[in-house]
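Q: Hi! First time doing this. I have a protein sequence and I read that you can turn it into a structure. Is that right? Here it is:
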Amino acid sequence: MVERSDRAPLLDWEEVPSAEKPGGAAPAASHAKDRLSSPSNSRALSGCSAPGFGWSSGPGGPTPSKSVSSSDGCSTPPATSSTPAGTAEGLRTDKEEHLSDSGPREVSLEDTMVKWEEKDQIVSVFVVTFNTRSGNMLEWCLPKDMDLEGVEFKAIASGSHRVSTDFIYFRKGCYFGLACFANMAVESTVERGARMKSVGILSPSYTLLYRYMSFLEHQVRLQLQSPGHYSPLEAFYEDKRALLPPSGDGVVTACPVNAWGAAINHSMHPEMKITHPAGCMSQFIRFFGEQIMVLWKLALLRRRILIFSPPPVGVVCYRVYCCCCLANISIPGVSVAVPEFHPFFYVNVADISALENELSYVACTTEKIFEEKKDLYDVYVDNQNVKTYRDGLKPLLRLSTADREKYRKLTEQRQMLLYSQEENGDCVSSEEDLFILFFLEQNNRIFQTLSEVAGSPDPTLTQESVRAMGLDPHGDRLFLLHLLEIYGYDTLLVSEQLCCS
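A: Yes, that's right. Below is the predicted 3D structure, encoded as structure tokens:
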């Protein structure tokens, strides 16, 4: 099988440390050529208030992307020290070549997509440090007038002193951030033997942040070794800063509608691949096992899901992403009546007031105190343990016969894909695409059936129609009733046979 690095290329003006010279990794530019980040779902396209980038594909269903997958190596949290390859200039050249390969109509659409991507850039870059007297502190930032209050507690997660390196995705107001943390032993009594810093960026979208992972990792090591050396960060900001509208409200929130089709031809979901060449979905499936079917139902019901885990935070941020992917729906208009499913990624006590106002979200934290804040969440996930204090949701934590059957099918499809990759060198299909397509098709099947029943002369849900959705008429009855209410299908009648079973 072909292995490719998902790491971003170093910028052409960045120093390459001698210990990190590329060797053997395929150019990241080639990977960028294969895929464009996904647009948002239909709600985001119509102009949502948060920069989201919904989790759904476009109308008409997805087209599988040409992803490259390698051997599965996600059983442990991914390392953040992979070797970057390629240059930023090479990335731009590949994009131009890719556009020239397409037909006339596709060129126009992709050109629009690329222009949109260029707007989705960096709005701030910053350095956070841990001070033994004052705690986490914002050490330096650009632009100087950027409101970064509280970012020092997002960029260095609670408990990070226990790990040597980490990366953290987070929300800051209407922006998304990525920070790379490092902890270095020093012979200093003032610093109590350890120097901890984090270098981060903010953007209107999380889908492109991964491109700058290797740059941030290199810069945080530079800050640890030579504190106060900000010139590479200044050059980075000047090169990548976003050209946003004058009003603060006008951040880029979604891909233009006419670019949607072109984007789906490359990727049906936001690009959030972990630093290991294999996608984060396989780790997610193995970690939760059959419990992902419980998370699927809760995500589809737009519940507030909070995931607790001690550091490192990076791999848990991808669990947030995977949870959101469970709720993909590509049937236009279905999700208009339900709350946006916001990915908050890492949160701490400073985010409590923000979470209090959210109707639906997925987030992760390292702070155990959140478990006591039961009004902030509907579902609390501690390792593989999924629990709720809402009596109406407790029955949903039990797996139905249909849940186990769906998980069996997902496992079989995954094994077939892995076999194809191993035996036939299949480098087109990926576990990430398989995973997202599986739940997308399941969700579409449910809502397509509901729409057909609602439009029939006898709008009554029977055992047959429930089975047609891939649900268990008995075990999934409560889930179905919640679904009808939340998505506005509560005018449908439920047969007595189903209701009283």
